[in-house]
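Subgroup meeting minutes
Present: P.N., E.W., G.H.
Scribe: E.W.

1. P.N. recapped why we're keeping a running log of single-chain structure predictions: easier to compare across weeks, and new members can see raw inputs and outputs side by side.
2. G.H. added today's entry (470 aa).
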Amino acid sequence: MSMRWKLIPVLLVSLTFCNSSAAPVSSRSAGGEASENSTSGAISRSRNNAIVNAARKVSPAVVSITVLSTRVVEERPFFIDPFWREIIPPTYRLERIQSLGSGVVISPDGYIITNQHVVGDNPDSIIVTFPDASQYTARLVGKVDKLDIAILKVKSGRKDFPYAELGNSDSLVVGEWAIAIGNPLGYYLDDVEPTVTAGIISGIHRTIRGMEDRVYRNMIQTDAAINPGNSGGPLVDADGRVIGINTFIFSKSGGFEGIGFAIPINTVRKVFSEIVRYGHLREAIVPIEVQDLDNHLREAVGYGGKFGVIVVNSMLRDVREGDIIVSVNGQTIKNTGDWEDMTYILVPGDVLKLRIFRNGKYIDVRVKAKEFVLKPYSGPLGAEVVQMDPFVARKLGIPYTSGVAVLSVRKGSLADFMGLEKGDVIKELNGMKIETIKDFQRAERIVMKSRRVYGRIWRNGQILSFNIVF
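Output recorded in log:
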């Protein structure tokens, strides 16, 4: 039996007292009227609470985002025999896709923050609708896929768009009010006023592994309802300042179950500044590799503390192997996850204040993040590769192992025929051990000359072998 929505009217019945010749004259005194007015005023004041004020302040800057894009769809007759499936080529058609999400305007000239998954990779058109029903086209200024952040700009000469004030997500306290604003029903509603839901900050510094190679770090957890269509909308504090961008939920049913997550606004602010100024996010690193402490390591270095991580590789003069990093910028580092949260989004010039335990003493060290640029090589094999080191491994999200890592594979190339994939680490080619780009280039020349390729690669913790004649 199918379920149907039912519209059940809810009536608010008010009683109005009127003077009439047939009715007795009220005997209320002026004092009684003042008392009634006072009660009415108290009710109004109680309704005009922090949540109402915050929603009223931010809602005019919350927009509905409609994205149109095109994708290529492969079609085959569903009844075709598997034998003929390999012989008869498929047909392809273009399919138009419309997606809906939310965003928040953060400047009077129309810059908008939303999620990357709202706008996709190559949108054909983006339309933003304000709560007053005014519509504008927008352009994609830039996006950072791994952080799920996109920056849009309204195509208009206006300099007086309503915009929201940004708060400070680093100062959040678990248990404080959180207000989610967005457009969860898209155009199913006749009006375009955003929807407001309220809850609390349920947790901070959450790390969640998403689809593909995306890892959400330092996320804000809230029980304020976040539903499909809310993605990209603001999470707001009780003062009406944006503290996060609503991004996803955990759910068994597909509906909201009290576990929603938002990207901290301090992360978004850094990305916005980089994209507007440079056109992309300049990634930077602090060249330090750490691992979790255990009792044996604590005893070896004479450290009696409970928290911290130990440095196992450092390219900095002021930080040495065997140092215990206890805190970063005043925040206690309990494990490598905390260290990753503090260093996963750095831009050139960022300074980290490290509290370090060394030789029985605590010392304070300031380190500056430096821009990290991959220097890939691509040759006749058709694979774009980069020499591995601990920091390349971290950027690619794979464990460090010697060799050259595959960044991309050109379709139809020999590397594609070999089955190489992004994230593979080539360790041996045609009998040559591969540790550097020069090793790879020498082996590549031998491969192209001999018309045969064999060797070993690392993939997802396994060593795979191949042997191909072409």
